[in-house]
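User: Okay, second chain of the day. Same drill as before: sequence in, structure tokens out.
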Amino acid sequence: MEVFYYVVFGALSAIVAGLELGKSGKDRVATTSAFNSFKNNYVLVYSLMMSGDWLQGPYVYFLYSQYGFDKGDIGRLFIAGFGSSMLFGTIVGSLADKQGRKRACITYCITYILSCITKHSPQYKVLMIGRILGGIATSLLFSAFESWLVAEHNKRGFDPQWLSITFSKAIFLGNGLIAIVSGLFANLLAENLGFGPVAPFDAAACFLAIGMAIIMSSWSENYGDPSDSKDLMAQFKVAAKAIASDEKIALLGAIQSLFEGSMYTFVFLWTPALSPNEEDIPHGFIFATFMLSSMLGSSIASRLLARKLKVEGYMQIVFSISAVTLVLPVVTNFLVPPSSVKGGTISFGGCLQLLGFCTFEACVGIFWPSIMKMRSQYIPEEARSTIMNFFRIPLNLFVCVVLYNVNAFPITVMFGMCSIFLFMAAILQRRLMVVSDLHKSSTKAQEMIGEDEPLNP
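Assistant: Same drill. Structure tokens below.
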């Protein structure tokens, strides 16, 4: 393996260690033992759930290619996953508000385990079924768990500000350390031990089963609106009304769709971007490096949130930086001559892109706890899972359109489009801050008028 990969990984490791060890009193919040126990239980479960997801990440594209499918065939498999998340996942995820968030989390485990099992088959139809199941599971992963946490946190009477601590710790471990270990473990299983690219999926199923056992034994059930009069269509109407009537929720949904749509497109494109001439790159190690970058971002986010900096303010900068990083492949394509050697080592242009991609992943690490914090503030509890899955409809539609046309446009065009969308997210984030400040000022003025009314009959 080239020294370059070790240098990047080592430098990122040193920065993350320095940030974590250098935390001062301003970066820490005093909490209770009851909250710490609750937080640790959730972080453990979330980490197991994410390990089940991250173990699959480095080898999804590679496994499909090993089965003999070209980029177009693989693109259609990815489309099936995102399309499933948009259609079936939205319905299943929305049922969490009605039928219970704990049940939805257990459903995620079962669905994803079944998806992992399908990876043993080289049959395209079986793999397609696996992608559909994976799409449903993804919707549950990014809605049911967060909805359960917010409701349970409030039900137990913990300080609302402490939610940021759980979010940051869950992302730091689940989307950081666990993802790094998962990438290295997947690399160990598939390449060093020679079990092949399907082995990480078997390991993922095992971790999901362990997490499901902990959920069943230690979590209590909670609901959004459990009233008998609310059917699924009524739940959809409540969510649609909330989005249409509150500009803050609509803006938040648009921001999330633009960023996550670009992020998922990046997940599909980073492998061919770094190896345009079939260069020999260590997929698992690069994936672990990306996750270390995400860990760096979540560490920065924990400091920002602990110091109570305005999320709506600093996220404008984050979106702008992420937009610049994804335009880097376009720039390097024009400025750096492409290599003509097939199957060699990573090119100089690839090295530059890798550094840019690491910066983008750091932005992703800041994004997750920050968007969770904003969702906890703006989304009403009675339809939290439903609204969160509504947000995923445009993002899944966007990714499906991109992947469907993956062979029609060069990779540079795809990255350029993602960069534009990220700049749009920065602009909408600015608008969200303005609207939020106006709402707070209006609410404060009304409270002051209410206090003065008894004195002025």
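Residues 111 and 133 are 6 Å apart (CA to CA).

User: Thanks, on to the next one.
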